[in-house]
Design a protein that fits this description.
Largest sheet of chain A: 7 strands, mixed
CATH architecture of the largest domain in chain A: 3-Layer(aba) Sandwich
Helix content of chain A: 40-55%
CATH topology of the largest domain in chain A: Aspartate Aminotransferase, domain 2
Strand content of chain A: 5-15%
Mean pLDDT of chain A: 95
Low-confidence stretches of chain A: none
Structural class of chain B: alpha+beta
Number of helices of chain A: 13
Mean pLDDT of chain B: 84
CATH topology of chain B: Sufe protein. Chain: A
Largest sheet of chain B: 3 strands, antiparallel
Largest interface: A-B, 26 and 28 residues
Shape of chain A: globular
Helix content of chain B: 25-40%
Number of helices of chain B: 6
Distance between the termini of chain B: 61 Å
CATH superfamily of the largest domain in chain A: Type I PLP-dependent aspartate aminotransferase-like (Major domain)
Strand order of the largest sheet of chain B: 1-2-3
Oligomer: heterodimer
Strand order of the largest sheet of chain A: 2-8-7-6-5-3-4
Distance between the termini of chain A: 38 Å
Chain lengths: ~400, ~150
């Protein structure tokens, strides 16, 4: 049976061309970039040229790119790094309620250590409440962290608008607080762009962010590698110490192969972006339209247009997501759900709940995320089997008795 | 590399040998009852049950309804029908419970009142640890159905 992979937001396969570029660094070119002799210098060149590629795409200086081990690590470094450096200037941090757990759990950890955290609400489509953001900014706010595009429902946040709100606040603050020790550079703005990479602009200048997280496993690059953009004007306290690597911000011998793969993957993703976006949006809208048409009592989660080109998230009345995912799996379709049954803490998706969706509908959600190998034929197969599966599960469901 | 053998009743089928053979997280029995549920009551409009029991809630992610028919003379469960909203293990555990209480001429209602989640779990060939609460619900719905029958009698 052919497998139709529709979980590209979870992770992607490695592009074949990129795999070829990685391979030599796992075998022949094994040198440590810190070594002075030839293969060490070659490794150094490889890492630095990957750094330059990433920097170019973000429109920043190479010195501002820190390679890390994952998107989660970059998120952690941004949050704990800022908290560690600037806690003497303030202990207030703002995040949205629909952040990735790598951001939310970091914020919660700081909360236990005495930081004050504001969790910004979102509307029914998953858009952050900007009025609430304006009201939440305080003189002691050191960091705002709001994701670029959501991994579950695909909603794209107005990052440029958010950075404008923050910089306007800074202007009034620096005026008011001239005499005090608070710095005019605060609060800093971090965005997790893991899902946005390859689909939306990563221009730091356009976005107006001070920190930005990307990883390799969503852009057809290798897993276990990511990066954090950090503006030269700010300081960070490292999470890992014990070597001067990554500008003293991330100790440990660089994973040359993965860094090379990450750089190449981001370059390719940028190159394919416009064409793929157009193709995926057509497929996405085709699938959404037909699922909603074919299956009664189904509804789209997230925003109709401010949405990642590859994201579909739909809730079905009366059924539970894990059952749905397993039935799809049996027929060769790999998908994901916001149901509690796939999480370790048995609560349904915090993202869907934050949009105000009833818990039973959060349990009954299905996420399909498309990618480079997705074809219309794949989606037609989904449209053939999905209504039958939903119907079958509804027939055995106790909630359809009402 | 050698993998530690795991006890069947432990439930954590993700670890050990099973992981190597890229098996599913659920046992064969769970899969069988999930994909081919037994004794589902698809249409309840004309079904005359002796007792009905409901447990769980959709908000929590699991909800079961159980209908039973009891033989007046022998006090044994003749039929056990059900419907479940929930994950695969919730569906499979209700299905296997309906088999357990009706097989071999039916289970005595007193014995059925004391049916333990552990017994359902064992018949399923184990469940992942965090899924255990799902199988607890089926027996609660059954007890309610028996209570309902006793009250109506």
């Amino acid at each position: 049976m052919k497998t139709i992979y529709l979980d590209y937001a979870a992770t992607t396969y490695i592009d074949a061309g990129i795999f070829k570029k990685i391979a030599p660094y796992l075998k022949k070119n094994f040198g440590n970039p810190s070594s002075l002799y030839l293969i060490g210098r070659q490794a150094k060149v490889a890492v630095e040229s990957a750094r330059a590629s990433v920097a170019k795409i973000l429109g920043v200086n190479s010195r501002e790119i820190i390679f890390t081990g994952s998107g989660a690590e970059s998120d952690n470094l941004a949050i704990f790094g800022v908290a560690g450096t600037y806690s003497n200037k303030g202990k207030h941090i703002i995040v949205s309620k629909i952040e990735h757990k790598a951001v939310l759990e970091s914020a919660k950890k700081l909360e236990k250590e005495g930081f004050k955290i504001t969790y910004l609400g979102v509307d029914s489509k998953g858009l952050v409440n900007l009025a609430e953001l304006k009201k939440s900014l305080r003189p002691d706010t050191i960091l705002v962290s709001i994701m670029y595009a959501n991994n579950e429902i695909g909603t794209i946040q107005p990052i440029t608008k958010i950075s404008e709100i923050i910089s306007n606040f800074k202007k009034t603050k620096s005026y008011k607080l001239k005499a005090k020790s608070l710095t005019a550079a605060l609060p800093l703005f971090h965005t997790d762009a893991c899902q946005a990479a390859g689909a939306l602009t990563l221009s730091v200048k356009k976005l107006g962010v001070d920190l930005l997280t990307i990883n390799g496993s969503k852009i057809y690059g290798p897993k276990g590698v990511g990066c954090l953009y950090k503006s030269e004007d700010i300081k960070l306290e490292p999470l890992i110490v014990g070597g001067g690597q990554e500008n003293n911000l991330r100790a440990g011998t660089e994973n040359v192969a993965l860094i090379v793969g990450f750089g190449e993957a981001l370059k390719l993703a940028e190159k394919l972006k416009n064409k793929e976006n157009k193709r995926l949006m057509n497929l996405r809208d085709y699938l959404i339209k037909n699922i909603l048409k074919l299956i009664p009592h189904s509804r789209l989660n997230g925003h109709m247009t401010k949405r990642l080109p590859n994201n579909i998230n739909i809730s079905f009345d009366g059924i539970e997501g894990e059952s749905l995912v397993l039935m799809l799996d049996k027929q060769g379709v790999s998908a994901s759900t916001g149901s509690a049954c796939t999480s370790s803490d048995l609560t349904p998706s915090h993202v869907l709940l934050a949009t105000g969706l009833a818990p039973e509908l959060a349990h009954g959600s299905l996420r399909l995320t498309l990618g480079r190998k997705t074809t219309k034929r794949d989606l037609d197969y989904v449209l053939k089997i999905l209504p039958e599966i939903v119907h079958k599960l509804r027939k055995i469901s106790s909630t359809t008795l009402r | 590399m050698k993998y530690k053998k795991i006890k069947k009743t432990k439930g954590d089928v993700i670890s050990g040998d099973k992981y190597k053979e890229k098996s599913w997280v659920y046992s064969e029995t769970v899969k069988d009852h999930f994909f081919h549920p037994r004794n589902v009551l698809l249409d309840d409009t004309h079904y005359e049950a002796d007792g009905i029991g409901v447990t769980g809630s959709p908000a929590c992610g699991d909800m079961m309804i159980v209908w039973i028919k009891v033989d007046k003379k022998s006090q044994k469960i003749k039929e056990c029908k059900w419907r479940t909203f929930g994950c695969a293990s919730a569906i499979a555990s209700t299905s296997i419970m309906s088999v357990m209480v009706t097989e071999n001429g039916g289970m005595d209602i007193k014995k059925a009142m004391n049916l333990k989640p552990q017994q359902i779990l064992e018949r399923l060939g184990g469940l992942p640890d965090r899924k255990f609460h799902c199988s607890v619900l089926g027996d609660a719905a059954l007890r309610e159905a028996i209570d309902d029958y006793v009250r109506k009698k």
